[in-house]
Amino acid sequence: MSRLSRGAFLALILTQAGHSIEEYFGHLYDVLAPARFVSGFLSIDRRIGFTVFNAALVGFGLWCYFDPVRHARRSALALAWFWVVLEMLNGAAHMTWSLSVRAYRPGLATAPVLVAIALVLAWELRHLQKPFGRRGLAGTQ
Prior knowledge:
Elements: H1 3-25, H2 28-31, H3 33-42, H4 46-69, H5 76-101, H6 111-126, E1 129-130, E2 133-134
Antiparallel strand pairs: 1-2
């Protein structure tokens, strides 16, 4: 992966960490049914369940960066695309939700940043692919 794509990947994960913090302080685990369900499934105290889930998510993202992405493992490209799709959907869902109720909802402030960084990463990842295969992940452009 190129230096820019590795940097964009790390920025995406760190932005997700900030996004999770915004959601926590906005009590997303109380106002959004899927977050309420997952948080309640992980702990009787939804705040703790929400924290555990988001810490695991960010932890997984950091592992992806520090092992497969940084060391150009075979799985790096697929994992990077997974994060692009995840964060594009996450950001779009927050923006759509807020627009539909015409009010701020937890996660809205950082959602556009997630989408923007995911788009930059997607742009970079597309340039790593050849028409009939993939270029070496260690190479830079």
